[in-house]
From TrEMBL:
<keyword id="KW-0812">Transmembrane</keyword>
<feature type="transmembrane region" description="Helical">
    <location>
        <begin position="354"/>
        <end position="374"/>
    </location>
</feature>
<protein>
    <recommendedName>
        <fullName>Transmembrane protein</fullName>
    </recommendedName>
</protein>
<keyword id="KW-1133">Transmembrane helix</keyword>
<feature type="transmembrane region" description="Helical">
    <location>
        <begin position="37"/>
        <end position="58"/>
    </location>
</feature>
<feature type="transmembrane region" description="Helical">
    <location>
        <begin position="251"/>
        <end position="273"/>
    </location>
</feature>
<feature type="transmembrane region" description="Helical">
    <location>
        <begin position="127"/>
        <end position="146"/>
    </location>
</feature>
<feature type="transmembrane region" description="Helical">
    <location>
        <begin position="86"/>
        <end position="107"/>
    </location>
</feature>
<keyword id="KW-0472">Membrane</keyword>
<feature type="transmembrane region" description="Helical">
    <location>
        <begin position="314"/>
        <end position="342"/>
    </location>
</feature>
<feature type="transmembrane region" description="Helical">
    <location>
        <begin position="434"/>
        <end position="457"/>
    </location>
</feature>
<feature type="transmembrane region" description="Helical">
    <location>
        <begin position="185"/>
        <end position="204"/>
    </location>
</feature>
Length: 481
């Protein structure tokens, strides 16, 4: 690290050099180039599934037939993926991924630039993470649309309800050319990719993070706690202060504990609703996905209107897929705090630490609200199917041939719906249990995040006071490199 005076007139210039009079700088430069190459390789491997997906989409003959008939299907009332939904999002993903690779390739020249500061480094890393995140999200969105298309095509080939369309599909093959992931699996794969993505980004951050005077800060915090009015010489308070000492590491530990306890039950619940073979998954599938897929059968809209009334809407994505995405993003945010615990000697910007805590609190609150709405909705659906399910089954049999009914009910796990009709039970709490669960979750999250907020304020005040004293002793601000 090298101290430099402020030079506001200096222009940003990429630093490609490896050689330097200082041997340590040469080693650091070579190390950063190796890191850049390794990360480029890792992200290319992580993105390789997209290359396979591009091959599948480009060679799917049934997809070409589907696009030819899409206008007529839309006129019949189907709400199906368009060319832009599949190809547009995929091409956009490639563009964002290309930009991300360029940013990673420029990793060493940027972070060792003559005018780079810690703030600018942080902006660069976060910009790279954002481009990568958008790229993987767009790829998953394209795969999600393709998975919905595939489910529709499989249903059409199995039932032959639309004779002209089915004949055109069979002209290129009696079965779907490629079997791709289900919509839920698409988002679970993204969940894993997000975790790996953030892990690699933290690896990039760690390679350029400076060491912090942890011992000095710890002693300064302990001194402030002992001299504070609240201490008052009490041994009990002394022990509590040591346990709840408002250090960056302690606050990070508490943040992980809170989010872990909140995420776990909601993670389990999300697995259950995203699996169409479970009772809750089947309820969402039959209530919000099948109405769109079965429009070839005349009278299906009226049958669903009698069952669900105005609840028949396009909520399938929000109920089935959105929770996976939000849990994945929230879980990935915790990696920031985990990295602080693991690399406690590395310097963390106060502003960045505050922002990450605010983001985590917002994500946790949004997740709790989303899951509350979904849990009440699924319980409401269970009650509706309990009272109206038998009548719906009778009406559905009357709209189609026995062969088609057998194909559809087998493909979409009608047996799980029958179990709900028979027992009026699902794999989670009743409405009263959900209310109790929600009160406990919000009370726990609210009280603990309030405690974290208080600790954060104390931490920042002490931190800034310490650095003010340190600057007075050491002089000018350091550049990042």
């Amino acid at each position: 690290m090298q101290k430099r005076n402020h030079n506001f007139g200096s222009k940003f210039k990429l630093n490609w050099k490896i050689k330097d009079p200082n041997e340590n700088v040469i080693k650091k430069n070579a190390f950063l180039y190796k890191i850049s190459a390794l990360v480029l390789f890792l992200f290319t491997i992580l993105y390789s599934l997209t290359f396979l997906f591009i091959f599948i989409v480009a060679n799917d003959k049934h997809l070409h037939v589907y696009f030819e008939y899409l206008n007529s299907l839309t006129k019949e009332g189907f709400i199906m993926p368009s060319f832009n939904d599949v190809w547009g999002t995929l091409i956009s993903s490639l563009v964002f991924f290309g930009i991300s690779l360029v940013l990673i390739f420029l990793y060493k020249p940027i972070v060792t630039s003559n005018s780079i500061t810690l703030t600018k480094q942080s902006i660069y890393i976060k910009a790279t993470a954002t481009f990568l995140m958008v790229s993987f999200l767009l790829t998953s969105l394209s795969q999600y649309h393709y998975a919905n298309y595939a489910a529709f095509i499989k249903l059409e080939l199995a039932t032959e309800a639309n004779e002209n369309f089915t004949a055109a599909l069979k002209s290129v093959g009696p079965h779907l050319s490629f079997s791709w992931k289900t919509p839920s699996i698409v988002w679970w794969v993204l969940f894993v990719q997000i975790i790996i993505l953030f892990s690699i980004i933290l690896f990039l951050e760690n390679a350029i993070s400076r060491k912090e005077n942890i011992v000095g800060i710890e002693k300064y915090i302990e001194y402030n706690l002992k001299t504070s009015k609240s201490f008052a010489g009490s041994k009990i308070i002394e022990k509590m202060n040591k346990f709840f000492k408002p250090t960056t590491r302690n606050i990070s530990i508490w943040a992980l504990v809170i989010v872990g306890l909140i995420l776990l039950p909601n993670f389990i619940y999300t697995i259950l609703i995203s699996n169409s073979s479970t009772k809750m998954g089947a309820l969402i599938q039959w209530s919000y996905n099948l109405p769109n897929l079965l429009k070839d059968f005349k009278g299906i809209d009226l049958l669903y209107a009698n069952l669900l009334g105005d609840k028949y809407s396009l909520a399938y994505f929000a109920l089935n897929s959105l929770p996976i995405i939000i849990i994945g993003i929230t879980f990935s945010t915790t990696f920031f705090f985990l990295s602080i615990i693991v690399r406690s000697e590395k310097q963390i910007s106060d502003n960045v630490f505050i922002l990450q805590n605010v983001v985590l609190a917002f994500e946790t609150l949004f997740l709790l609200i989303l899951m509350l709405v979904i849990k009440f909705e699924v319980n409401n659906l269970a009650n509706i199917w309990k009272t109206e399910g038998a009548k719906f089954e009778e009406g559905l049999r009357g709209l189609m041939q026995a062969k088609d009914f057998q194909e559809i009910t087998t493909m979409f796990h009608w047996d799980a719906i029958q179990d709900v009709i028979r027992t009026n039970k699902i794999e989670w709490f009743s409405q009263n249990g959900i209310i109790a669960e929600t009160i406990i979750s919000f009370a726990f999250a609210g009280s603990t995040f309030t405690g974290i907020g208080i600790g954060l304020v104390k931490n920042i005040k002490i931190h800034r006071a310490f650095f003010k004293l340190q600057k007075e002793i050491e002089g000018d601000e350091e550049y990042a490199y």
